[in-house]
């Protein structure tokens, strides 16, 4: 007989860790619990994916660009450890081998495989959220968590109040440290945890998505290139070419990432102005043959990849076990696809352990 200690679980953050955690909770639950346990995913923005996001050209939604994560690299040991996940994503057309040249990439161990998502990297997140059958609620910016007996009462910045039996936080640490309610009280009692959280650091970078009219040729020999010594730009990808989604009826797209050093120098300036006055001209200097785009998306990844993670890289952090309150994601591992999968596995197993 199963004793259900939790039935309504809140996962904060609709990025990779949050989406996979929701799907794995459903997968690992015994059949007798699957109809009574419900996961809800809150996303503070109007788009899923976190850094695994895909942006449409508003002039032609068929033309898209991956604005954050570009491709997935997995060494043999990680591919074998997560073989069932990779096979599932490959068989469902959500991943495919990256076949083009990546110029200036690091030297990977022998046997490393690189994958792209043909329909945009966000489609991986979308797949797991659908598989989880979770309730997805957008523009829900968590502000407060309070404990009332055996559950948590949570409140958003716009005043929405709901109760949950367990909470999983997968957002960046700065957002966690800004939460009001029980979080500061727990951290007051665990100053070592507070200090480790405060020591976490992230990189920041400007990103640009450039869209072109149908028939445009982006004449480069690579699908992506790293510019290690450039003072402004660190990475450019011929995005539609990289994903092998070139179509004469759909314009191509280009992705540009600025260097961390350049971003930090201009981080407090207007995003559009920085992109227009500094980054775009440099793109055309590096690629003088590049035609003029029809639309541009400018973005600042204020919190990009983890630069310095949580000490010890435990995969997850239990703030309170009764009722269950946890943190997870690449903050507690590494900014890699496989590490997020491992964090999601740990989080989901802990939830199931508290349910059955």
Q: Label the CATH architecture of the largest domain.
A: Alpha-Beta Complex
The largest sheet is:
6 strands, mixed
The CATH class of the largest domain: Alpha Beta
Proportion in β-strands? 25-35%
Say how many strands there are. 23
Instruction: Identify the strand order in the major beta sheet.
Output: 9-2-1-13-23-22
Number of helices: 11
What is the distance, rounded to the nearest whole angstrom, between the alpha carbons of the first and last residues?
8 Å
Shape: globular
Offer a concise description of the structure:
This protein is of the alpha/beta class and 356 residues long. It folds into two domains: 8-50 and 124-200 and 310-355, FAD/NAD(P)-binding domain (3-Layer(bba) Sandwich); 54-118 and 202-306, Polyamine Oxidase, Chain A, domain 2, CATH 3.90.660.10. 30% of the residues lie in helices and 29% in strands.
Write up this protein.
With 356 residues, the chain is of the alpha/beta class. The chain has a six-stranded mixed beta sheet with strand order 9-2-1-13-23-22, with helices on both faces. Strands 7-17-18-19-16-20 form a six-stranded mixed beta sheet. The chain has a four-stranded mixed beta sheet with strand order 12-11-10-14. The chain folds into two domains: 166 residues, FAD/NAD(P)-binding domain; 170 residues, Polyamine Oxidase, Chain A, domain 2 (Alpha-Beta Complex), CATH 3.90.660. Helix content is 30%, strand content 29%.
Which terms summarize this structure?
356 residues, alpha/beta, Polyamine Oxidase, Chain A, domain 2, 6-stranded mixed sheet, 23 strands, disordered N terminus, FAD/NAD-bd_sf, RNLS, Amine oxidase domain-containing protein, oxidoreductase activity, acting on NAD(P)H, Amino_oxidase
């Amino acid at each position: 007989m199963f004793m259900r200690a939790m039935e309504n679980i809140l996962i904060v953050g609709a990025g990779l860790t949050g989406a996979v955690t929701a799907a794995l909770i459903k997968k690992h639950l015994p059949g007798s619990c699957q109809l009574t346990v419900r996961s809800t995913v809150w996303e503070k923005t109007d788009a899923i994916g976190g850094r695994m996001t895909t942006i449409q050209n508003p002039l032609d939604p068929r033309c898209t660009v991956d604005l954050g994560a570009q491709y997935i690299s997995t060494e043999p040991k990680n591919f074998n450890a997560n073989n069932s996940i990779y096979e599932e994503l490959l068989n469902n057309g959500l991943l495919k081998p990256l076949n083009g040249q990546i110029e200036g990439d690091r030297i990977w161990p022998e046997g490393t495989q690189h994958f792209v998502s043909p329909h945009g990297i966000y489609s991986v997140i979308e797949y797991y959220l659908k598989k989880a059958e979770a309730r997805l609620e957008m523009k829900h910016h968590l502000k407060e968590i309070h404990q009332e007996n055996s559950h948590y009462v949570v409140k958003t910045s716009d005043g929405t109040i709901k109760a949950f039996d367990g909470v999983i936080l997968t957002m960046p640490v700065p957002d966690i440290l800004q939460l009001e309610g029980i979080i500061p009280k727990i951290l007051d009692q665990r100053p070592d945890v507070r200090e480790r959280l405060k020591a976490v650091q992230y990189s920041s970078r400007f990103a640009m998505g450039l869209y072109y009219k149908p028939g445009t040729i982006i004449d480069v020999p690579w699908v992506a290139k790293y510019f290690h010594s450039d003072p402004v730009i660190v990475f450019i990808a011929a995005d539609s070419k990289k994903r092998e989604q070139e179509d004469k009826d759909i314009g191509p797209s280009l992705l540009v990432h600025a260097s961390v050093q350049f971003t930090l120098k201009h981080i407090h300036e207007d995003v559009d102005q920085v992109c227009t006055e500094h980054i775009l001209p440099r793109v055309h200097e590096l690629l003088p043959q590049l035609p003029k785009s029809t639309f541009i998306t400018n973005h600042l990844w204020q919190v990009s990849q983890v630069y310095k993670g949580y000490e010890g890289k435990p995969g997850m952090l239990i703030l309170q076990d009764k009722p269950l309150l946890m943190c997870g994601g690449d903050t507690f591992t590494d900014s890699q696809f496989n590490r997020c999968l491992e964090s999601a596995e740990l989080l989901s197993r802990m939830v199931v352990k508290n349910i059955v």
